[in-house]
């Protein structure tokens, strides 16, 4: 088992390096430091001196990959790639193009993102799996048919509709919770209810249909026929046997959502005024602050790879074949 986990950890290094190089190329080869300077300073009435000064203040005056004017190790260290990208491996995010400490901002905004993402993930899993088990229990009946129709209808509606509709119905008409905003501590719970409800409801359609497909596939296995032959009730077959054996594909789907626990939801946080990492990324894109965007892309890649590693480890716990192999 340790060798299995070690192989997965060793795979992560080259993947992260490739993501880092690709991200660097996309940002600095498509948009040169001069282009970035003009974006921030404005293209009109900007002198070459002002552009060079802006680049020097932020370290963008150096060569991209190789500094032929430096000596020794400086040929590699005194480059934009070394100073702006390799430091990310040590989680040294540096400063944004506006001068803010990116690491400090991430630490401050991680809490609000987690306050929304964790309840959405846990409650969403419980609701989707329960609803899917109910549809499978009543398969080939009107409950199953209309449940699938409802899921397709929920999937066909844009997430913006749920956000705007929830704000209008729950926030404005019923006045149960604030429409937007955020506050720390227990006082902030009233600001989290509506985003969590919207996040869960918007994912019911796709999640339930996917879990229903998994459970129906498991129902055709030999172990299900054996359990029924022993006289076990259908509820026990579904809850104890089918659900347990469907954990591997369920875990695979959950790993896709793990980066969102820290990265936050771009749309939900922006619409509800939550100062999380999602809105932080959107604000950086709108302000064309490429230093923040690069840091968030790298952080998302790290979280996704960690999620994959945790999924591989969880496979060894739920599937003896992986552990023994």
Main attributes of the structure:
single chain, 325 residues, mainly alpha, MetI-like fold, 2 domains, 0% strand
Explain how this protein is built.
The termini are close together. The protein is mostly helical and about 325 residues long. The chain contains 16 helices and no strands. The chain has 2 domains: about 1-90, no CATH class; about 105-290, Orthogonal Bundle (MetI-like fold), CATH 1.10.3720.
Give the fraction of residues assigned to helices: over 70%
Order of helices and strands: HHHHHHHHHHHHHHHH
The class by helix and strand makeup works out as mainly alpha
Average pLDDT metric: 81
**Overall body shape:** globular
Secondary-structure blueprint:
Elements: H1 2-28, H2 33-41, H3 48-58, H4 74-77, H5 80-84, H6 102-137, H7 142-156, H8 159-173, H9 189-219, H10 222-229, H11 234-245, H12 247-263, H13 266-272, H14 277-286, H15 290-318, H16 320-324
What's the gist of this structure?
The chain is mainly alpha-helical. It has two domains: 2-90, no CATH class; 106-288, MetI-like (MetI-like fold), CATH 1.10.3720.10. It contains 16 helices and no strands.
